[in-house]
């Protein structure tokens, strides 16, 4: 079954010459029997046992196990060989202290994957005379009892071979003899190989004695029938072939049970006992010992019987030569149960509690720091905003529309810089409906502004002034439109008996907040008399005179009051503020109020169309977004022999950057902003001298036909149209009975007013086409020095704000650049923007106010939608008091996100090093357990399992503690930030938990893998030498 051929094993010490521990050893071992290997220290006897037992690999030669050569063994095969066929008994017992006797013995079976093994373990313990010791701990056993446990552990898996290395070395003489008695009994059914330095024991017990010296076999003898020893032949048998036992060793006749079973297992074997020579037969059957002895005196050392076929503890049968893995070739792959791995792994944690506590503390801190930084590395603006708004208790949220653009900066004609930015714009009715469909009922608000500003305010002229220290103000911040959807929503909030469907184009509802402000400030009726406002119904039917900052006023009739009032906490916060801080608190509270609908006037859907020209905001639209070339010297425009205008900016059509100018009127009605060679578009200001001549001629004609009054009306009309075409706005004047101007109000021209002004110019051009006042469209461009730069035909003109703000001339691209090159350009910085956004003609609303979602999921959905850029570059934002602070945090984290990530990585590496150090120390502490497990058949994977279990326990403890710390720190930081700026920036959510868990697992794996890999890759004998 076991044979070694030409074994060579060389040890290479760090210093000195290599040592040949085995030098060409060849031996063939019998199937059963007790073989002693003797020799002095350093003779190679233990090395031979280690190589034969698969604990070490030879440098030369081979081991043959059941016909299969070790040359075909993988590392897994050697593990499987030890787990299946070999049992080991060591001098120092080497049983696991944390396990009971029963658990130590059953471990060998569980490594073979056998679960139900309690009965088998108890049977084996009874055979080694340890019945009743199952629950005892090794620390309570004597040396002899511990060695019996080791023998039971080796025997329980029914190995074909038992290797015993100095099994009596740590025992007294009597106990040692008892152990050898037991091994000798076992040798009748198994091969028992004993390494010993005790020749006396060898002579008494051995069936074969092999002596080594300097790594070579110097003697190989087998026991003769008469008890003497003779040289063994090549088969490892004595000349007479008689297996003999020393006198007094064979068990007495009354020893039933284990001895009888061993003897029964050796049926047909020649034995010499104290009573004579005979043949062993199964107990109670077979021929008598004397007769059997007479028939077998010349037979070689026989093969002993194997366990019964089908026994779950039977060793594998014959093996074929194969390179397959251990599980496929008959060897049993070890499977260390996870509970055992955890117990062994946790065992070392109790050994050095201070080191463990220090490691967990530092790793917990590192994990917690990583967790904190992960909240910033994986910062979720939507989650942060949602948490902030919910914590702040906002009742409504204000949405504003924006568009993304690229701002291009030029110095002269050279593009010098570009960057992404966003600009505010308004909502169209279609966009409002899309928001309602996505996020629920809300109210659209407008303030008649047409540009990117949305902070317009309106006054109530017939109201007094609230106290400067009051929370209330009569100032209005916009008009909330009660369309069908909004009216249905606000119906339940009415504090008066009002029919919202009956609101007219000059009717309005005030909020409870505005009503309280009017109560405090006072209100006058049309006659200037004070209006008593004691209850909400008192204001119904009363008139409010609304004024705009830019001029104009309208009168509205109040039809009801809506229940929109500031929370009680606002007044409490103001009252609780110290006198020195009251002004700052008041300003903060008023700012928070401005984001809601508290100061809005609720009007019908018809209100906008009826009054959009009546109120002039303080801000007007700034739609100029056209690239032009700034000329170094002015370009003069000459028509009919005289200079009619000039410009210092020219551009080509189509424009190379930015939007195509919208406010161009072509004489031929073309809609495509593209020019042919010789065509130009000039600014309305360049045509004004000729247009004004036509207007004067028309005024004279009107005076002649209709009188001075009609002529004056025509003059005012032309003045108004000229202002609209030149600046996009006009003034409305108020005169006294003497005709003296007493006031003026600036108005932004409506689209239809601008179109009417353009059409009137065309009417004049047509009327005076064949007169001396006709518009001359043939012009010559000259430089300041008088050099002619070309003759061109005017085909259109720019008007409105574009005309007033950008007196630019447009021409064909092929003719534009030569003029720029001829005159030169100024090194002035200018900028335009590029965007896919085109402002819809029906944009009117500057905000959409909706009830704040009260669930985290709903708030998260809204905040996630904010900032999502659409195909036309538009996106909405949520405007709140915390918006600026949230944006600052977003920008800060976006800028330093990578820094936080690397800090987190450093923390993770630090944790890894801490755990690496602890596991390395734990491996050093557990060398004994590793050696024991490897010897009884555990694989490298089982060693990994032990330390991964230990590492996982530590990492799990660190992770749980770190999560608790992160929750606590985040809560504290958020409370601090909320108190200071109203923002909860640290959202320690599921993503952070999972990332921390992943880092903990990765740290555990990486910190364990390297040190355990080094330990697991060691040959079993190297681990055993550490015992």
How would you describe the overall organization of this protein?
Strands 14, 15, 16, 17, 18, 19, 20, 21, 22, 32, 33 and 34 form a 12-stranded mixed β-sheet that branches. Among the domains are: about 340-385 and about 885-1025, no CATH class; about 455-610, no CATH class; about 630-835, no CATH class. Residues about 240-330 and about 620-625 have low confidence and may be disordered. With about 1050 residues, the chain is α+β, with helices and mostly antiparallel strands. The chain starts with a strand and ends with a helix. It is a multi-pass membrane protein. GO terms for molecular function: ATP binding; ATP hydrolysis activity; transmembrane transporter activity. InterPro entries: AAA+_ATPase, ABC3_permease_C, ABC_transporter-like_ATP-bd, ABC_transporter-like_CS, ABC_transpr_LolD-like, MacB-like_ATP-bd, P-loop_NTPase. It is found in: Cell inner membrane.
Can you give keywords for this protein?
transmembrane transporter activity; 34 strands; alpha+beta; twelve-stranded mixed beta sheet; 1027 residues; elongated; 29 helices; nucleotide-binding
Give a nutshell description of this structure.
With 1027 residues, the protein is α+β, with helices and mostly antiparallel strands. The strands form six sheets. Strands 14, 15, 16, 17, 18, 19, 20, 21, 22, 32, 33 and 34 form a twelve-stranded mixed beta sheet that branches. Strands 6-7-8-3-9-10-11 form a seven-stranded mixed beta sheet, with helices on both faces. This is ATP-binding cassette domain-containing protein.
């Amino acid at each position: 079954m076991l044979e070694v051929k030409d074994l060579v094993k060389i040890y290479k010490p760090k210093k000195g010459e290599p040592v040949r521990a085995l030098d060409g050893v060849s031996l063939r071992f019998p199937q059963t029997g007790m073989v002693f290997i003797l020799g002095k220290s350093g003779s190679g006897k233990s090395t031979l046992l280690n190589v034969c037992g698969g604990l070490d690999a030879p440098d030369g030669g081979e081991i043959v196990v059941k016909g299969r050569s070790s040359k075909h063994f993988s590392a897994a095969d050697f593990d499987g060989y030890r787990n299946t066929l070999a049992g080991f008994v060591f001098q120092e017992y080497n049983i696991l202290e944390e396990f009971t006797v029963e658990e130590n013995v059953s471990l060998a079976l569980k490594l073979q994957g056998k679960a139900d093994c309690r009965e088998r373990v108890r049977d084996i313990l009874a055979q080694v005379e340890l019945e009743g010791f199952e629950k005892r701990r090794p620390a309570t056993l004597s040396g002899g009892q511990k060695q019996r446990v080791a023998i039971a552990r080796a025997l329980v898996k029914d190995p074909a071979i038992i290797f015993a290395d100095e099994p009596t070395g740590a025992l007294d003489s009597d106990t040692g003899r008892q152990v050898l008695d037991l091994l000798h009994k076992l040798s009748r059914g198994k091969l028992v190989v004993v390494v010993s330095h005790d020749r006396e024991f060898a002579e008494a017990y051995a069936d074969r004695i092999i002596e080594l010296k300097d790594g070579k076999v110097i003697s190989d003898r087998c026991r003769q029938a008469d008890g003497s020893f003779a040289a063994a032949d090549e088969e490892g048998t004595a000349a007479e072939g008689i297996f003999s036992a020393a006198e007094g060793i064979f068990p007495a006749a009354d020893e039933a049970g284990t001895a009888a079973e061993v003897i029964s297992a050796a049926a047909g074997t020649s034995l010499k006992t104290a009573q004579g020579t005979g043949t062993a037969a199964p107990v109670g059957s077979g021929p008598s010992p004397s007769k059997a002895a007479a028939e077998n005196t010349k037979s070689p050392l026989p093969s002993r019987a194997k366990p019964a076929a089908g026994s779950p503890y039977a060793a594998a049968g014959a093996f074929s030569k194969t390179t397959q893995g251990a599980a496929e070739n008959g060897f049993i792959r070890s499977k260390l149960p996870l509970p055992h791995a955890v117990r062994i792994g946790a065992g070392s944690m109790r050994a050095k509690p201070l080191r463990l506590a220090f490691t967990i503390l530092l790793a917990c801190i590192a994990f917690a720091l990583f967790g904190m930084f992960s909240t910033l590395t994986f910062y979720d603006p939507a989650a942060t905003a949602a948490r902030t708004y919910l914590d702040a208790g906002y009742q409504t949220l204000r949405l504003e529309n924006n568009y993304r653009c690229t701002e291009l900066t030029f110095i002269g004609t050279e593009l010098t810089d570009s960057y992404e930015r966003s600009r505010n714009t308004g909502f169209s009715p279609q966009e409002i409906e899309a928001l309602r469909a996505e996020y629920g009922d809300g109210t659209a608000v407008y303030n008649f502004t047409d540009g990117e500003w949305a902070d317009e305010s309106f006054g109530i002229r017939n109201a007094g002034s609230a106290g400067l220290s009051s929370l209330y103000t009569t100032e209005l911040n916009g008009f909330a439109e009660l369309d069908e959807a909004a009216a249905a929503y606000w119906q339940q909030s009415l504090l008066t008996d009002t029919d919202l469907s009956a609101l007219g184009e000059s009717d309005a509802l005030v909020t409870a907040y505005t009503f309280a402000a009017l109560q405090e400030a006072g209100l006058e009726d049309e006659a200037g008399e004070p209006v008593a406002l004691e209850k909400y119904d008192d204001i119904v039917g009363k008139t409010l005179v609304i004024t705009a900052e830019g001029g104009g006023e309208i009168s509205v009739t109040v039809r009801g009051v809506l229940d929109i009032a500031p929370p009680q906490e606002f007044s409490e916060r103001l009252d609780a503020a110290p006198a020195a801080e009251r002004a700052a608190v008041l300003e903060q509270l008023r700012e928070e109020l401005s984001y809601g609908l508290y100061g809005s006037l609720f009007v019908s859907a018809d209100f906008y169309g009826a009054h959009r020209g009546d109120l002039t905001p303080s801000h007007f639209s700034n739609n100029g977004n056209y690239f032009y070339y700034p000329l170094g010297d002015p370009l003069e425009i000459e028509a009919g022999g005289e200079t009619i205008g000039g410009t210092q900016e020219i551009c080509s059509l189509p424009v190379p950057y930015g939007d195509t100018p919208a406010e161009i009127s072509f004489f031929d009605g073309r809609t495509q902003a593209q020019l042919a060679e010789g065509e130009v578009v000039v600014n309305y200001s360049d045509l004004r001298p000729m247009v004004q001549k036509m207007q004067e001629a028309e005024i004279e004609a009107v005076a002649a036909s209709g009188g001075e009054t009609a002529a004056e009306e025509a003059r005012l009309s032309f003045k108004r149209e000229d202002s609209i075409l030149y600046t996009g706005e006009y003034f409305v004047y108020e005169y006294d009975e003497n005709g003296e101007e007493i006031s003026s109000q600036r108005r932004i021209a409506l689209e239809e007013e601008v179109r009417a002004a353009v059409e009137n110019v065309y009417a004049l051009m047509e009327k005076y086409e064949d007169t001396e006042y006709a518009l001359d469209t043939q012009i010559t461009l000259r430089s300041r020095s008088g050099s002619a730069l070309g003759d061109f035909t005017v085909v259109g003109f720019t008007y409105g704000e574009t005309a007033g703000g950008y007196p630019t001339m447009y021409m064909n691209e092929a003719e534009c650049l030569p003029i720029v090159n001829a005159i030169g350009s100024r090194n002035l910085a200018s900028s335009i923007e590029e965007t896919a956004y085109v402002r819809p003609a029906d944009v009117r609303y500057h905000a959409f106010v909706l009830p704040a979602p009260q669930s985290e999921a709903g708030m998260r959905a809204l905040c996630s939608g904010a900032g999502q850029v659409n195909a036309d570059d538009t996106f909405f934002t949520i405007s709140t008091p915390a918006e600026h602070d949230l944006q600052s945090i977003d920008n800060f984290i976006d800028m330093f996100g990578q820094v936080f990530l690397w800090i987190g990585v450093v923390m993770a590496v630090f944790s890894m090093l801490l755990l690496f150090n602890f596991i390395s120390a734990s491996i050093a502490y557990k060398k004994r357990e590793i050696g024991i497990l490897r010897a009884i058949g555990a694989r490298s994977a089982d060693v990994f399992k032990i330390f991964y279990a230990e590492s996982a326990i530590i990492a799990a403890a660190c992770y749980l503690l770190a999560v608790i710390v992160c929750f606590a720190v985040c809560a504290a930081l958020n409370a601090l930030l909320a108190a200071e700026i109203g923002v909860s920036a640290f959202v320690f959510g599921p993503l952070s938990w999972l990332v921390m868990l992943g880092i903990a697992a990765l740290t555990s794996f990486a910190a364990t893998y390297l040190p355990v890999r080094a330990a697991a890759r060691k040959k079993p004998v190297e681990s055993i030498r550490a015992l």
